[in-house]
Amino acid sequence: MSTRLADSLWPACLSALHLDRFLAGELDELAARRVRQHVLACSRCAGAVEGMRAARDEPLPPLRVVPLAPRARRWPRAAAAGIALAAAASLLLVVRTPGERPKGSGVGLRMYVEHGGEVRSAVPGEVIAPGDAVRFAVTTPKKAYIAVLSLDAEGRGSVYFPLGARAEAVEPSGEVALPLGTRLDATVGEERIVGVFCSSPVELEPLRIQLERGIALAPEGCQVTRWSFVKR
Amino acid sequence: MTLDAAAIERLYRSHGHAVLRRARLLLGNEADAQEALQEVFAALLRAPQDLRSAGSALGWLYRATTHFCLNQLRNRRTGARLLQQSVAPAFGAASGPSPEALAELRNLLARMPADAAAAAVYHHLDGMTHAEVAEMLGCSRRQVGYLLERAQRSLEHLEQSA
Questions:
Q1: pLDDT recorded at residue A114
Q2: DSSP-based three-state secondary structure for B15
Q3: A114, A219, B4, B39: which sits with the fewest CB atoms below 10 Å from its CB?
Q4: pLDDT band of B89, cuts 50, 70, 90
C-alpha cells in the first residue's frame, strides 16, 4: 500500500509470526540463532520481542469450552450410576410452543456438572461454583436441530452449543451427550438455560439477542426447554 | 502432532497469548478479543485434525484468528460497534500503530474482499514478507502480490468514495 496505512503498522523488521515462533521454540536451531543475533543488533525487533514476552506473562482466563470429547459417553453414564434417573426425569422441563408439536414429543435437556473431578447430574436451581464445567445431554424422539443458550445474571446471552451459527442436527438415540462442555466463568447469580429443538437449522444469533432483550424464545418450528442454575 | 484434550489445554496456555494479542489488535476491544481467544480454541477442540495437518501450531492459530476476527469485522452489528470504540495499541502507545490508524484499517478490512483483507492483515499488521503470506494463504508469492494490489485498489477506492 502506498497510503499512510501501509506505514509500519508492525513495528519490527522480522514478522510477528516469526518472532512468535522463535519465542515458542518452533524454529529450528539455525533459524533461532539467526533471530537471536538479529534481535541483539536491532532495537525495533528487540522492542517487539520484549512486548511479546511481557504479553506472555499475562494470566489467561480459563478455557471456557472444556475438552471433553473423548469422554462423551462417560459423562451421562458416570452421573447415572450415582443418581436415580426417576428423580432426574423431573429435570426435563419441556415447554411446548402451542400448536407446533403434538403432545408427548419427548424432547428433553439435562445438565451434568463436573466439580473437583466428580461428575453429577444437576437439578433445576442447582448451586454451581464458578470454574465448574457443565455439559448438556439431550433427548429427542426424532432428528432435531438443537442449540443450548444461556442468559447469565448480568444479562449476557451466549450460545453453549453448538459452536457454529446455526442449530446442529442430533439424531434420535436415547440420551445424547452434546460434544462440548463449558467451563463457567466468574459471573455469579442465576443463569437461565434454554434448549431449542427445531425442525430446521435455525440461526442462533437472533435467538441470543432475543434472550438478552428479555424476549421469550419461541422460534417457528421449534420446541423450547428452560431451566436455571445458580452460580456462587 | 498428538492433539488430545490435554495437549490442546497446554497449547492454550503456551500459545493463547499470541491469539489474544492479535485479536486485540484486529478487533480493538478487550471483550471481543477475549471472545475470539475462546472461539479459536473452541474450534480447535472441535476439529483437532485441522491442526494435525498444519505444519506449525502458531501458523494455524494465526490463520484461525485472522479468519474469526475478519468475520467479526464484517458482521454489520459487531463491526459498527467496534468501529465506534477506542482501541488498545498492541504493545503500548510508544511502539505500536496509532489507535486512529488501526480504527481506520479495521474499517477498511471489513469492506475489502476476504482474501485481500487476509493478505493485508498478514503483510501490514503482522509484518510478514510476501513469502510468509504465501505460506499462510497457501498460494504463490505472485498471488500475494496480486492480493495486496487488490487491497491497495480497494483502499484507494474506499478513500475516494469517503
A1: 80
A2: helix
A3: B4
A4: very low
Name every chain B residue with its beta carbon within 8 A of the beta carbon of A51. Answer: 90-92, 95
pTM strictly above 0.80 = no
Smallest CA–CA separation between A35 and chain B, in Å? Answer: 15
* Strand spans (E) along chain A: 65-66, 94-95, 108-115, 118-121, 127-128, 133-139, 144-151, 157-161, 168-170, 175-177, 181-183, 189-198, 222-231
pLDDT score for B28: 85
> Rounded to whole angstroms, how far apart are CA atoms A17 and B129?
10
Three-state DSSP at A230 gives: strand
CB contact under 8 A, B126 and A15: yes
Closest Cα of chain B to A5: distance in Å?
6
pLDDT exceeds 50 at position A70: no
Among the four given CATH numbers 3.30.1450, 1.10.10, 1.10.150, 3.20.20, the one describing domain B111-162: 1.10.10
Residues of A with CB under 8 A from a CB of B: 1-6, 8-18, 20-21, 24, 26, 47-48, 51-52, 54-56, 58, 60-61, 63-65, 67-70, 163, 179-180
Question: Are the beta carbons of B155 and A5 separated by less than 8 Å?
Answer: yes
Question: Are the beta carbons of B3 and B43 closer than 8 angstroms?
Answer: no
Average of per-residue pLDDT across B5-14: 84
Size of interface A-B (CB pairs under 8 A): 132
Chain A residues touching residue B88 (CB < 8 angstroms): none
Cell numbers representing residue A27 in the block: 524454529
A-chain residue closest to B100, CA distance = A5
Greater confidence (A78 vs A212) lies with A212
Task: Give domain limits for chain A.
Answer: 12-56, 65-231
The predicted structure's pLDDT at residue A227? 81
**pLDDT confidence tier of residue B1, bands split at 50, 70 and 90:** low
Residue A150 · residue A194 · CB < 8 Å: yes
User: Looking at the domain that runs over A65-231, which CATH code has it been given?
Assistant: 2.70.50
Average pLDDT (A152-179) is 82
Query: Are B46 and A180 within 8 A, CB to CB?
Result: yes
Contact A180 B13 (CB under 8 A): no
Q: Is the pLDDT of residue B87 over 60?
A: no
Closest residue of chain B to A6, computed from CA coordinates: B124
Decide if pLDDT at A214 tops 70: yes
**Domain B1-96 class in CATH:** mainly alpha
